[in-house]
C-alpha cells in the first residue's frame, strides 16, 4: 500500500522514528483541503501508544477537510542543518500516514488532552493543569490519528555517521 523508500540505506528504524515523535514539539498535518488543494497546517501534538493526538477548535478548514476525507499525513523535522560548502543539508525527519478521527467520547478526549498537557507542561501543578483543561473544555476538539505507516529518513551523511 505504501511505497518502499527509494534510498533505503537512509531509512530510520521504527524505534528511531518513534523517538523523534516522542521528543518533537511540533509537526505539520497534511490533509485533502478544499477544491482539491492540499492543506498542511503546523500543530503541536503528542505521540502515545502508536497514535498521534492534536487539539483544535470545533470548526475550521482542517476539520472540514478531515470530515470529507480522514486520511492524512503528519511530518516532523528533527534536524535540518545547512552545510553550505556541500550545497546540502543534513536532515532527519519522520512522516506518519494514517486516519484521523475526532474524539467524541468524553473519557477518551480527557485522556488525550491530559497526555498532551503532560508533554508540554511536565512540571505543572496537577491542579493548575486541571483548571486549564476545565477552562477550555467546552470549545476543545481532540483529534486522534491512528498511524498506519511510519517512515523516517536521514541524510546519507548522518546515516554514515558523519558530523561535519
From TrEMBL:
Specify the superkingdom.
Bacteria
Signal sequence extent: none
Residue ranges that the Swiss-Prot or TrEMBL entry lists as coiled coil: none
Q: Which Pfam families match?
A: Pyridox_ox_2 (PF12900)
InterPro entries, A to Z: Pyridox_Oxase-rel (IPR024747), Split_barrel_FMN-bd (IPR012349)
What is the protein's name according to its record?
Answer: Pyridoxamine 5'-phosphate oxidase family protein
State the species of origin.
Candidatus Gemmiger avicola
